[in-house]
């Protein structure tokens, strides 16, 4: 017979940002718990509102299925002593299975005879097992927990009621003095308490009490109401997915309403008004085509009664918010950029790294280093220098102090107002791009260079003072910043070697004596950190770990080229025809480690194979580096592969470790020269070559 169960945890209001995670945890932990307890089921549905988390389980049996198991014990030579009697190990094994030694029989496993016992396990009643579901509830993890009253339990919010039903039977369950029953609570203001007679009645019973427990249904309901309002008013209500989920998790019974604000506020930049509406009030802004209109849309936690009064109350609150924003904007325009820059010297960026003014100075220097490496035009270089110099001025404006998400955005707007050119103004905003994985990168050269400089200084500076990320801890977002560097270089098509750029940045830190780490230690830590981020990106593209190790042997290098090399070698792993090439390269790399220098004297060659390898390498090297420079990756590997035959011939006909020391060192030097060229492409020894069957 198929049965159903329901568990509901009634709480004080949950923070909206935790609800999605709580739902996912409840679903997964319930599934794992049922499977661990051998309770089959057909479906698990999880519900949530700001005041409750619930799980509805369908298709449960009356009891666990009966099972028969074969338990494996000690080997026969341990289970039976030399007198043919049962040993203590055998007696203990049988006792542990609830049996006697007479129940033991022997079976071979991989050629060895082991003691076995068959045991029959009678299934326990489902109702009894469900009493332990309390452990699932208490296993839910949240970023922040609290205690309440005199209780010792830490949980996201105080537990106020519990529902626990198996069919129509209450499951005896208690947490911190709250006993489970059949009674749940409706909407805080519109609903009443209600008795749930059976789990299947849960959704409909609560909806009658103005609680829509299905999170997806609440969201869909809000979307339907927004669409209806758009059609009625001829508005464009931008569907912000993040805001939509947030308001979904703030209400139990959603009703959409609209209000207006004074048109005079529209002189304030749109971004300020929108941020004020969304961040402070959770309102949806209203547009007609591209123009922001003096209206807003909110979502009420309740029905449509007295909705006009609700709109007026929200209009009053928003008016105060927008008045503040208008005041901040007008006051900011009274202070010049140069006056703002003076304030940066009084604000600590990080204690060991100085003030914001010092951060800006380093950004400017690093931006010019990048500009030189990219060989950008003089006009672009001038824009980069100016943008870097004023890049953080908006951080000391009243607007950004109030709305931190507007950093860069207000910088661009104020820069335009104060007469900066377009490239400089846009770069102030673009320095923070990309903001997340998959986000847009700077579109201007000035913005891209400034963004690279800002991120490199942040990363190297943090590592210089010992703030390397560890485990899941990355308080300064260094991993995201490093991924941003790689993404900008790739998408902008910049011909720049990251390894060399990191070395130059580290040297700059050494010249400025910034940070506590020794320069050699800092360089090693920075390269290791960036290699790990590069490896992360390559593995996300299904490049095998050994190939990643191979292409990163000399550092991240020119990332787009490194990425192409990785994908090419990933494919070559499956080609039987490349095996001979790999073996030749591997022999060379192994022997090159024994070399003490790289000077080759042709006069010391004793055999034709030495001269042939030398001349072929000189020929190949010139073509190889030219092809790499022109980003012809396939061609460059084909060119390198021409060395395979003369390498094999060299090893087949020459004793590298000759008795004559000068000859021996000369041969090793020749191999080292070849190896140095090979390493530019990859460490071929790191790759585990696969051959097709």
UniProtKB/TrEMBL annotation:
Keywords: Aminoacyl-tRNA synthetase, ATP-binding, Cytoplasm, Ligase, Nucleotide-binding, Protein biosynthesis. The keyword Phosphoprotein does not apply. It is found in: Cytoplasm. Pfam families: DALR_1, tRNA_synt_2f. InterPro entries: DALR_anticod-bd, Gly-tRNA-synth_bsu, Gly-tRNA-synth_heterodimer, tRNAsynth_Ia_anticodon-bd. It comes from the Bacteria. Residues 581-678 form the DALR anticodon binding domain. Its EC number is 6.1.1.14. It is an enzyme of class 6 (ligase). It catalyses: tRNA(Gly) + glycine + ATP = glycyl-tRNA(Gly) + AMP + diphosphate. Tetramer of two alpha and two beta subunits. NCBIfam families: glyS (TIGR00211). HAMAP family: Gly_tRNA_synth_beta. Belongs to the class-II aminoacyl-tRNA synthetase family. This is Glycine--tRNA ligase beta subunit. It comes from Salimicrobium salexigens. The gene is glyS.
